[in-house]
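Sat 14:20. Reprocessing the chain from the morning session after the first attempt stalled halfway. Input below, unchanged.
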Amino acid sequence: MVAVATAGALIATTAPRTLAARFRAQAKSGRAITDEVGRRVVMPTEVRRIVTLAPNLTETVYALGLGDRLAGDTDVCDTPVAAKQKPHVGNPQNPSLEAIAVLHPDLVLATTSINRLETVVALERLGIPVYTSDPHTVRGMVDSIARMAELVGAGDQGAALVAQLRERLDALHSRLADRPMVHVLFVVWEDPLITIGQNTFIADALRWAGAESVVLSDRNWPQLSIEEVVRLQPDYIVFTSDHGETGATQLADLRSRPAWRDLDAVEMGHVVDVSEEAVRPSPGLVDAIEQLAHQLHPEAFAAKSEIRNSKSETRLALEAVREAGRECRQCAR
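Finished this time. Tokens:
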């Protein structure tokens, strides 16, 4: 409601006739598309200036090679480093509408994972088109990248990026297909202890890494007690690097806590730290999945090299036997 009220104030005090004219011009010369939440969006035929309202969207724009078109992003957009140098429009949940309008974007990219509907409605009232992404799975994230790439006129870059991401995911699936799932506790927040539900994109990312949450819940971000975790006894505990600690530091900390040290995973040192990309539906999510898969299933990635080494050792042994045979024949003469 605050965002809508602010939008109304902007329309009343800045340039209502200009904004109305912009609406009419876009309706005549632009194109109408449907975003990922089913909303009709009228936008310019050519997109030269983009404002992103979430870190994953900023990362996606750069991954498509469109950093020069990014007119602004949010205070928390930090990947890649160049994103920090862009004009900021505030935090994702309550961005400054005035700051966005001043940047004159052809298109604003939003996401259901962090942005509010009120923000989208307020921007529309200012005559600023907003495309909202809504991925719920890893493949959904990849498909969303392809759609946004086409939307901003970067279809070729999008096709190349998407093909690479899909190839990596398929390779990962091939390696882990026959291996049992590892049961993990994915820690979103420590105090209170919050983890993930079954229907989040993070849960799907875990499955790609050969793991599944030990907590079964239809809620996206269920809260639970440490006593419940002790009862469930996960195989691994997974933290993200945005907690500011390494896996080793985190493990030492958990071993000093009375309840946490009762977990078999803590006793066995099965505490892993993954990139915070694991909680962003962006191209970097695939990096985080690969990283986690290596930590949870090291044997799956050592297998091929070990097979090659084994074959090499066998070949050397056979060559040694043949050489010894030749020497014996020479001695017999």
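The radius of gyration is 26 Å.
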